[in-house]
Amino acid sequence: MGDDANQEVDGETPKERVDRELIELLNEVRVALPGVQVLFAFLLTVPFASGWKKTTELQQDVYVCAVVTAAVAAVFMIAPSSYHRLLFRQPHKEHMLFTSNKLLMIGMVFLAISICLCVFLVVDYVISIPWALGLTVGIALLIVVLWYAMPLNRRHEVWSPPRD
C-alpha cells in the first residue's frame, strides 16, 4: 500500500502508527535524558571543587557555556514529556509527535555541544589547550558521524528485505 497519511501501511492504521511512533519517541527521551541530567548535575558541582580557583578565564568561560548548553539540552529533551502530559487526551497526537521529534533533535544538538565543551574543559585543565582542541574535535567528529551522518546516510537508502 502507499505511504499516504490516511492509508493503512503494513497492517497498521494511521492512528496505530502515530501511537507507536509517539511511544518510541518518548522511550528514546527516557534513554537520552538521564545522560543529560548526569552531565548537568556534574557541571553544577564543578565550581565548588577545591581546584576551581586554579582555572583560567578561558576555562571558566567554557564551563559557563557547557552549563548553559546542558541546561538548554535538558529543557528541550524534557519538553516532549511535558507536551504529552499537557495535551493528554487531546486530538493532537500527530502534531505532538512531529513537534516532539523536533524538540528532541534540538536537544541532542545542545547535548553534543555541551559534551564537547566538557571534554575541552577537562582536558585543558588536566593537560593543555592543544590536547583539549584535538580531543574535542575528535569527539565532535564522532558525534557528527554516529548521531547524524550514519542515520542520515541510511535515510536515503531504499530498504529491501534480506535474501535467504
Protein topology:
Layout: H1 14-45, H2 57-86, H3 93-126, H4 129-155
Give an overview of the whole structure.
With 164 residues, the protein is mostly helical. The chain has one domain (14-153). Helices cover 75% and strands 0% of the residues. The protein is built from four helices and no strands. The protein has helices at 14-45, 57-86, 93-126, 129-155. Helix 1 (14-45) packs antiparallel against helix 2 (57-86) and helix 1 runs parallel beside helix 3. It is flat. The model has no long low-confidence stretch (mean pLDDT 84).
Which key features would you list for this structure?
about 160 residues, mainly alpha
Brief summary of the model shown:
The protein is an all-alpha fold and 164 residues long. The protein is built from 4 helices and no strands.
What's the structural domain tally? 1
State the separation between the terminal residues, measured CA to CA: 24 Å
Strand proportion: under 5%
Strand count, sense and barrel status of the largest sheet are: none
The beta-strand count equals 0
Number of helices: 4
What is the N-to-C order of secondary-structure elements (H for helix, E for strand)? HHHH
What value does the average pLDDT take? Answer: 84
Taken from the alpha-carbon principal axes, the silhouette is: flat
Low-confidence stretches: none
Structural class: mainly alpha
The helix content, as a percent range, equals over 70%
Cα-based radius of gyration, to the nearest Å: 20 Å
